[in-house]
Specification:
Blueprint: E1 20-27, E2 41-54, E3 58-62, E4 66-70, E5 77-91, E6 104-107, H1 110-121, H2 131-145, E7 148-149, E8 152-154, H3 159-170, H4 178-185, H5 189-200, H6 204-221, H7 226-232, H8 238-249, H9 253-256
Antiparallel strand pairs: 1-5, 2-3, 2-4, 2-5, 3-8, 4-6, 6-7
Helix pairs in contact: 1-2, 4-5, 6-7
Length: 257
Amino acid sequence: MSRICHNPRTIAQEQVDRPLAAFARDYGEGERTGWHDHGRAQLLYAIEGVMRVDTPGALFVVPPGRALWVPAEMSHEVRSQGRVAMRALFFRADAARVGEAVPAVLGVSALLRELILAACAEPLEWDEAGRGGHLAALIAEEVARAPRLPFGVPALRDARLKRLAEALATQPASALTLDEWAGRCGASARTLARLFHAETGMGFARWRQTLRLAEAAALLAQGATPARAAAAVGYASAPAFGAAFRAAFGITPGEAR
């Protein structure tokens, strides 16, 4: 996996005196930015490909049709799954009030998508009294109104839990029980259960379901059928998968695809 090396604090979008600035960049398969932060809040969006964004508190799988709000000063790393065509926005402090104080996945309407693309076509120092100003005002309104979606998978800090998480991310369909994972992670099932609750506020089964649904969303975004995505993440029943997916994200797997 190759790494993109740049100083995020020196890019023009961090310096320009405008409420928001657009940023366009394409990433190849397996590229990553490395851990970094920005002085301005970001809306990370990709018109193609799946972004995996790590933050100290959670992993976010961000397929097309979704965007991730990253607050200013929040450390994060972006990893590409497939070719990623990123079209991001940077928000000056006064404009960032439309977002959250924590990372959040947003549903991107057809209007917001076109507004982001239009902003990318504007010069960096766009006319505040002209088209650029109108776009910025409408973008702010759409971001504020966008639905917030539970696409985040709580991050794990304990080394034993990290080993379990890395294995499940590779094989989300694994049916191993917590007792069986205990033998592989070097801790008792009781200890692992206690750590899951302490670090994520949820039990192992719920955390695993959250991971599986996030991975399924990535597969659907890459063109997998709902049945194939369900099987790949460990659901033997397509209806059960559909019900769980809709309960978590408010849309059906078919709509997500």
